[in-house]
Amino acid sequence: MKIEAAVLRGEETPFSIEDLELADPTPHEVLVRIVGAGHCHTDVLPRAAAGFGTPPIVLGHEGAGIVEAVGSAVQTVAVGDHVVLSFDSCGTCANCLDAHPAYCDTFLARNLVGNALDGSTPLTDTAGKPVAGRWFGQSSFATHAVVDARNAVVVDKELPLELLGPLGRGIQTGAGAVLEVLQVRPGEGIVIVGAGAVGLSAVMAAKVAGAGPIIAVDLNSDRLELARELGATDTIVPGVGDLTEQIRAIAPAGVRYGLDTTGLPTVIAATLDALALRSTLGLVGVQQGDLIIAPLALTAGRTITGILEGDANPHTFIPTLIALWQAGQFPFDRLVTTFPLSEINAAEKRASAGEIVKPVLLPGT
C-alpha cells in the first residue's frame, strides 16, 4: 500500500516527506495506522555515522495507532484495536522468556539496524529502491507501519492515543529504570542527571516511589523548573561547582540511588562518588568515552548497572504507567509538544536546542 513517511536520506540532510510503498503484513505482523509518534534522541543516532541505522531510513520508535490489518497467525491483536508500539524482541530467547525482552539476544540487530534480521525491509520508494523500515521494529515516522504483533500493546480506546507513543520507549526507559531496575524505596534519596524526557520520567517515577530527596541535575534552568514541578525536591546546575560536593551538600551521607542519562564519563564518575554506601548507579544511553573509576569507588558496596529500555516488559509496564497517569500521579503529558509529521525538521531542531522535551509527530495533520 502507499503511505507517506519522513525519510532520512543522509547524515546531514533534513527529513523529506515522501510517498513510499509498504508491504503487506506477514503472518505474525500487523498493519498500524500511526496516530502519534514521539521523537527521541535515539532517532538522531543515524546522523552520527556510528553504525546505527544507515540512510535512507524511516525512523521513529515511539508509535501509537490503530490496527488496520492483521497477519494470518496473529491472535493477540485485532483490527480496530488501539495500540502502543514498543521495541522489538524475539520472544523465544532466555531473557525474553524470563520477561526481560529489553535484553533479548538479538536486541541490537532487531532495533538499531533499521532492517529485519534477514536484511529485508517492508518499504520501497517511488523508484523501487529499498528504504530501511524496521527501526526498532516499527519505523513509525509515517502514516502506517508494519510491526510484529508481539510488540503492540493494546490500550483502552477512550485514551488520547496521540499522546501515548512515548510510553513505548523514552518514558518507559526513565520510569522503568527507577521502578523496575533500581527499585527505589520510600524515603531513600536519588540523584537523576539529565532532565530530558528520560530523566524527567525518572523524576516522576521517583515521586511515585516516595523517594527523598529527589535531586535533578541539568544545565537547562527551564528543565530544572519543570523537574521541581514534577517531583524533584532539589536541583543542581553542574559546572558552577564540583558536582560531587553539590550533591553531598544536599545529602551529606550520599544518596542510595543514582541515574545518569547523559553518558558523559566525568559526570558519571562524579555522581558515583556522591552515592552512599551500598548504593546503585544506573546508566542509560550510549556512553560517550571511557569511564575512569577511582580505585576505592566500588569498595563501599557501590554497584554500576547498565539499563536498556528500563528493563521493562511493555505489556505489563505500559498499562501500569497509564494507570498512574489516570490517577494523577504520573503526568507524562506535560512533557509533550505535538507537531504535524510535515514539521519533523522543526521538531527535531527545537528538541536538540532544548526548547521542548518530547516532540510527538502527528501523521495526517
From TrEMBL:
InterPro entries in the record: ADH-like_C, ADH-like_N, ADH_Zn_CS, GroES-like_sf, NAD(P)-bd_dom_sf
Keyword Repeat assigned: no
Cofactor: Zn(2+)
Keywords: Metal-binding, NAD, Oxidoreductase, Zinc
Top-level taxonomic group: Bacteria
Domain Alcohol dehydrogenase-like N-terminal: 27-154
CDD domains for the chain: benzyl_alcohol_DH
Protein's UniProt keywords contain Metal-binding: yes
Protein name: NAD(P)-dependent alcohol dehydrogenase
Taxonomic source organism: Rhodococcus globerulus
